[in-house]
Amino acid sequence: MTTQQAPAIQVHGLEKAYKDLRVLRGVDFEVARGSIFALLGSNGAGKTTAVKILSTLLKPDAGTARVNGFDVATQAADVRESISLTGQFAAVDEILSGRENLVLVARLRHLRNPGRIADDLLARFSLTDAGGRKVATYSGGMRRRLDIAMSLIGDPPVIFLDEPTTGLDPQARIEVWQAVKELAANGTTVLLTTQYLDEAEQLADRIAILHEGRILVNGTLDELKRLLPPAKVEYVEKQPTLEDVFLSLVGTKA
Amino acid sequence: MSKHFFGDTGVLLGRSLRHITRSPDTIITTAIMPIAMMLMFVYVFGGAINIGSGTSYVNYMLPGILLITVASGIAYTAYRLFMDMQGGIFERFQSMPTARSSVLWAHVLTSLVANLVSLVVVMLVALLMGFRSSAGILAWLSVAGILILFTLALTWIAVIPGLSAKTMEGASAFSYPLIFLPFLSSAFVPTDTMPTVLRVFADNQPVTSIVNAVRALFAEQPVGNDIWIALGWCVGILVVAYAFAMNAYRRKIS
């Protein structure tokens, strides 16, 4: 089938303006199946707008976008069957328990055995013990993990993560990175947006830098590094970073 | 309409009802203000208000109190919708293969259920305070029908700020004038003692005809034209509010 070989995401000449503010000014990129693609940019660069268009929440002013072979404008329902969106703020129901959140999403995706799906995901994201508790009592990292678990229900082939680690502590951030890597290892296509350079460096197969509504560069980490003059050899004393110190003191397993 | 509309609406209705059973304070706060007003009007002002002979004051003012109950209850409809919009869970539902309008309908039906429970609570207190009616089953069903229609009309009004408000206060402030409206009607005093301008307004605003129709049904009096004017107002408000709410909704999802 052609949709199997075609890139999971194809974006062409995408434009979007809010009144006079031109947020996207002609964005093009493709994401290969099963890869992790990072859209890197500072606040206001247009990352969230791009994700919202790809997840059918916004209509573009111009340009086309195809997700899993379906056009976001004319085949929105098929696109929604193929994707999952984890927005910038954990979109979980605070009043329900973690398990109830998962069951809710499984029901809305019209799957069989929502209870079993929920239990499996709770186990996979180390939330089994917290599963019966109200989400309002969860920590930021647990909430984000639940959020991502909710996005995996129904095994959508394409997942959008909009700034998945913004506001998380270093441990929670590593937990999320681990989850994202596992996803891609299982063949899911991941498009993530981030403003953290190290996050893109850690996770992404390809990185595109979005600035003022345009893609400045798009390539693998090595390709991007080659854009600058070749590395010089310098002798620098290797000090542990504050992150190394923090993580060794609080004893994370990751 | 999507083939999953009814199933999805049911799932989401279950979610919102769970919110209410976990914080029953929304039902209690909805019922407490009308009950306090009822106590004050019956035991403080009631003795001094001349409504003509043949009926007790609690019988006279209960219809107006029931409308106030609904008007204060729908503030929570706007609040619940607003919280979903803020938290990102609305976007999560919209990006899933779920019938899109189900999200809105679930809130509308939740509003109906919550308000009916509050109405029953207020009704029980009125019975303790001496409210009596010998009305038959048909009259009671007519009262229930009018109140349901009134709740739906006000609920669709509440959807508009729920979708478009910028702050939580803004989302619920709209209900204050609605709570106030019964005071400028025949709900607590006969309108013929009012100054001309006020009387003309009171006689021709929706609350008066609805109150008069409900009061006549409870007292087994002929309802005359009032019931048709009342139904006309309810349906009219419902249709206009629905159109505006749907317009606000479409702007939100495109």
Automatic annotation (TrEMBL), chain A:
One of its GO terms (molecular function) is ATP hydrolysis activity. Residues 9-237 form the ABC transporter domain. GO terms for biological process: response to antibiotic. The keyword Translocase applies. Keywords: Antibiotic resistance, ATP-binding, Cell membrane, Membrane, Nucleotide-binding, Translocase, Transport. Its main location: membrane. It is a peripheral membrane protein. It is found in: Cell membrane. SUPFAM superfamilies: P-loop containing nucleoside triphosphate hydrolases (SSF52540). It holds the Pfam family ABC_tran. The keyword ATP-binding applies. Signal peptide: none annotated. One of its GO terms (cellular component) is plasma membrane. Belongs to the ABC transporter superfamily. This is Export ABC transporter ATP-binding protein.
TrEMBL record, chain B:
GO terms for biological process: response to antibiotic. One of its GO terms (cellular component) is ATP-binding cassette (ABC) transporter complex. Keywords: Antibiotic resistance, Cell membrane, Membrane, Transmembrane, Transmembrane helix, Transport. Coiled coil: none annotated. It is found in: Cell membrane; Membrane. The keyword Ligase does not apply. One of its GO terms (molecular function) is ABC-type transporter activity. It is a multi-pass membrane protein. The chain crosses the membrane at residues 27-49, 61-82, 103-131, 137-159, 227-249. Residues 25-252 form the ABC transmembrane type-2 domain. It comes from the Bacteria. The keyword Cell membrane applies. InterPro entries: ABC2_TM, ABC2_TM_bact-type, ABC_2_transport, Nod_factor_ABC_transporter. Pfam families: ABC2_membrane. Belongs to the ABC-2 integral membrane protein family. This is Transport permease protein. It comes from [Actinomadura] parvosata subsp. kistnae.
